[in-house]
Each structure stands twice: as structure tokens, then as C-alpha cells.
Amino acid sequence: MRVVDFSEARNNLKTVINQVIEDADYTVIGDDLVVIACRYHYD
Q: What is the pTM (predicted TM-score) of this model?
């Protein structure tokens, strides 16, 4: 699991998404959003 603030996610969205996919994990953005890889969810 990775946690980033909203500004970092906004400025580096492509990198954040690629990291989630590559790690098959999830990232918490700010206090209200989670980006999760399908492989993480379905495994």
C-alpha cells in the first residue's frame, strides 16, 4: 500500500497509476480515494 496526497497524485497521475498496476497493489490518495489494481482485488 502506498499513500500520496492529492497534489502529488494530480501532478504524477500516470506514474501513480503505473505503480499501482506494476505492484498489483493499491494506493490511497488523500483521505477519500483508493486506486486499486484488478489483480490485487481478484487474487
A: 0.80
